[in-house]
Amino acid sequence: MPESPKRAIVNALLTVLKVERISQSFIRIYFHSDKHLTVNPLWICPHLKLLFTDPVTGTITFPQLDENNKIVVNETIRRLARSYSIRGYDETTNQLLIDFAVHPKGLATLWAQHAKPGDQVGIVGTVGKVTFSGKPVILMGDISAVPSICYTLEHLPKNQKVYAFIEVNYPSDIMPLVKQDDSQVNWLIRDQNKPNQLIDAVMAADLTSYDDLLFWGGMESSLAQQLRHTIKDKYTQLSPDAVQIISYWREGFAEGEFRRRE
């Protein structure tokens, strides 16, 4: 697998251009960045780090590099930083799209629900942990991974084989995507009576004809752990780095109380 790109400090300001409610679960915000962002077209499900304004000081605190070229992050930055998927980026205009999931509480979701043109947030940088390498890719996620999976499906390399399994809260959360011959997208509506339907759908897929696969997923922590073990039990020939599943959130933990794990 190609070497993972290094994280870069951008320390840019994003200014809100437009706010749009696109479904029951998502608010889409259009930003302009005052600096150019690096988004490799071969990244699978790229993300970034947003920095929100300190409610006490009214300022945005950015991290810096020390003499060893390491990022210095203090407690203020940790408290006000949130990771989000890139939904779209136009490098000619420096316009960035981010879809915020709607929750009753949480720093970022409350900010998004009250955002208006002219508001600003900071951005540390963009990163993609995994890149396309030609092998078939299986994308899996709950509502938290919808933006990243949709972005990836819209930026597939030519002849890239992809299977996507996405569980959303409501039918309105199903995003319109241009159908491509080499991709198969499976949308599932969350059902409390079927807590394992995402896992069941992935396991039911007939992928036995492929010699090598790459699984990428983003979802709730316990679901991520269960899916990771289930995949490795079924596909015993996979290399350790062929299963990349991120714990985006954890049931019962408020936003900011749980650190996403890869």
Summary, kept brief:
The protein has 262 residues and is α/β, with parallel strands linked by helices.
- Ends distance: 17 Å
Q: Major beta sheet, specifics? A: 7 strands, antiparallel
Classify the helix fraction into a percent range: 10-25%
Number of strands: 16
The helix count comes to: 5
**Which blocks of ≥5 consecutive residues have pLDDT under 50?**
none
Q: Strand order of the main beta sheet, please?
A: 7-4-10-1-2-9-8
Q: What features would you describe in this structure?
A:
The chain has 262 residues and is an alpha/beta fold. It has helices at 75-80, 107-114, 146-153, 197-204, 221-234; strands at residues 12-21, 26-33, 43-44, 47-51, 64-65, 71-72, 81-85, 88-90, 95-101, 120-127, 130-131, 137-141, 162-168, 183-189, 214-220, 243-249. A seven-stranded antiparallel β-sheet has the order 7-4-10-1-2-9-8. A hairpin with a 5-residue loop joins strand 5 and strand 6 (71-72).
Characteristic key phrases:
alpha/beta, seven-stranded antiparallel beta sheet, 5 helices, about 260 residues
List the helices and strands and how they pair.
Layout: E1 12-21, E2 26-33, E3 43-44, E4 47-51, E5 64-65, E6 71-72, H1 75-80, E7 81-85, E8 88-90, E9 95-101, H2 107-114, E10 120-127, E11 130-131, E12 137-141, H3 146-153, E13 162-168, E14 183-189, H4 197-204, E15 214-220, H5 221-234, E16 243-249
Parallel strand pairs: 12-13, 12-15, 13-14, 15-16
Antiparallel strand pairs: 1-2, 1-10, 2-9, 3-11, 4-7, 4-10, 5-6, 8-9
